[in-house]
Amino acid sequence: MAGAAREPAPVTNVSREQLATAVRALCADFGHDYWQRADEARTYPHEFVDALTDAGYLACLIPEEYGGMGLGVREACVILEEINRSGGNAAACHAQMYTMGTLLRHGSEEQKRRYLPGIASGELCLQAFAVTEPDAGSDTTRIRTFAERRGDRYVVNGQKVFISRVRQSDLMILLARTTPIDEVEKRTGGLSAFIVEVRDAGDALRVSPIDTMINHESCEVFLDGLEVPAANRIGEEGRGFRYIMAGMNAERILLASESIGDGMYFIDRASDYASARKVFGRRIGANQGVQFPIADAYMDIRAAAAVRDEAAREYDGGETRGEGPNMAKYLASRAAWKAANVAMDTFGGWGMATEYGIERKFREARLYMVAPVANNLVLSHVATHVLGMPRSF
Ligand SMILES: Cc1cc2nc3c(=O)[nH]c(=O)nc-3n(C[C@H](O)[C@H](O)[C@H](O)COP(=O)(O)OP(=O)(O)OC[C@H]3O[C@@H](n4cnc5c(N)ncnc54)[C@H](O)[C@@H]3O)c2cc1C
User: Fold this and answer.
1) Going from the N-terminus, what domains does the chain have, and what CATH number goes with each?
2) CA nearest 359: which of 259, 255, 266?
C-alpha cells in the first residue's frame, strides 16, 4: 500500500500475544451480565474503564516519557479487538487512547507536559472529540462553530452533535473555524484545534444527551461565549483540519479493530451455538445452509483483519495517507455487520432475546458503518484519492 513507510520500531517489552492474553483475562471479569445491565440501565461502565485505566491500557499510545506505555497502534488494536471479542464494548473508553494523538503530534512541549501525564494516569479524562455539527454533517469544512481571537483568548460560539463521552471528560479536543470559509483559499484552511477544559467551562458549555439505540453517551454540545486561552490552541491557527485528520487515521484503524473483535464475537458465538443446538434430530451446524454463512463471514473478517494489520504497521512506520485506515474501517465494519446478521440467523428467535447478548452486540456493531466516518465517504475517498477518479464534491 505505501512504499514510503519506514519499518516500525519493534515492541520490546511486551509481545502482542501476551498483551491479548492479559486483556482477555481482564475482560473475563466483565462478562455478559455486566454489559447487559449497563446497556439496559444506560449507565456508563465505570468499573470496566477503571480496570483498563489501572492496567495502563488506555495509556498504551502515550510515550513513556509522559507516563504511558509507549506502544504502537498495532498493540492498541490488540487491546480494542480483544475487548470487543469478549463481548464488551471498547467504545466506552477508546477515545482516551487516541484523542490525545492530536496533542502529542502537534501540541507544544509545554502543553504535552501539562496534560499527557494526567491523561496517562487516568487522572485527566480526554474522551471527547468535538467535530460533527448538525448542518455540516460529513462535510467537516462546513462547520460553523467559530472561535474569535480576543487578546490572549478565543471566544467560541456554536453547536456540536454526537459528541461522545463529554460528560465523562475533563478535556475535549474542539475543532472550530477561526477564519470564515469565504476568506480562505482552500475550504480545509481556517480551521483550528483547541484543548477545552470542560470542568471550568460553566454555562458557556452546555451538554444535552442524545438517546440512541446503543449505550453510547453521545451528546449535543452548545458553546455560548466559551473562553479558551490562546495557549490552549494546538499548533498553528488555521491548520486544525490537517491536525485532526492525522488523528482520524489512527481512529479508523483502531475502530476497525473493534469491528473485527465484534465480528469474531459473532463467529465464536454462532459456531458454538450451531454446534450444540439440535433441531430435526441433528445439530443445526451440520446443515450447510447454517454453516456456510458462518464460514463465509469468518473469511471476510480475516480479510479485513489483514488490511487492518497492514494499515496499522504502515501507520506505526510513519505513513500519513488515509488509504489504509479508511479501507480497514470500511471492510471491518461491513464484515462485522455481515457476521452480526449471520449470528442472528443462527440463533433463530433467541438472537433477539437479550439473555444471549447477540441483539446488544448487533446494535453496537451497526455503529461503525456510519461512524467515525460514513462508509459512502470512504468509497468516495478511495475512488478519488486512490483511484484518481473525478471528485463529486
Ligand atoms: C453514536 C455516535 C457517536 C458519535 N461520536 C462522535 C464524536 O465523538 N465526535 C464527533 O465529532 N462525531 C461523532 N459522531 C458523528 C459521526 O461521525 C457522524 O454521524 C458521521 O460522520 C456522519 O455524519 P452525519 O450523521 O451528519 O451524516 P450525513 O453527513 O448527513 O450523511 C447522511 C448519509 O448520507 C451519506 N452521504 C452524505 N454525503 C454524501 C456524498 N457526497 N456521497 C454519498 N453519500 C453521502 C452518508 O454516507 C450517510 O449515509 C458520532 C455518531 C454517532 C451515531
Assistant:
1) 16-121 (1.10.540.10), 126-238 (2.40.110.10), 242-386 (1.20.140.10)
2) 266
Residues with CB under 6 A from ligand 1: 129-132, 137-138, 162-164, 212, 216, 218, 367, 370-374, 376-377, 380, 392-393
CA distance 268 to 32: 14
For the beta carbon of residue 61, count every other beta carbon within 10 angstroms: 23
Cα 82 to ligand 1 centroid, rounded to whole Å: 26
- Is 230 strand, coil or helix? helix
For the CA of 212, the nearest atom of ligand 1: 1
Catalytic machinery residues: 251
Q: What is the dihedral angle through the alpha carbons of 147, 237, 125, 250, rounded to the nearest 10 degrees?
A: 120
Q: How many A from CA of 11 to the centre of ligand 1?
A: 35
Report the interhelical angle of 323-346 vs 240-276 (nearest 10°). Answer: 30
Q: What distance in angstroms lies between residue 370's CA and the mean position of ligand 1's atoms?
A: 6
The pLDDT tens digits of the residues spanning 250-300 come to 999 999 999 999 999 999 999 999 999 999 999 999 999 999 999 999 999
367-376 confidence digits (pLDDT tens): 999 999 999 9
Burial 296-332 (b: 16+ CB within 10 A, else e): ebbebbeebbebbbbbbbbbbeebebbbbbbbbbbbb
- Give the H or E element holding residue 233: strand 233-234
Residue whose C-alpha cell reads 466483565 in the numeric block: 30
With the most atoms of ligand 1 within 8 angstroms of its CB, the residue from 169, 214, 333, 370 to mutate is 370
Query: How many other CB atoms are there within 10 angstroms of residue 80's CB atom?
Result: 28
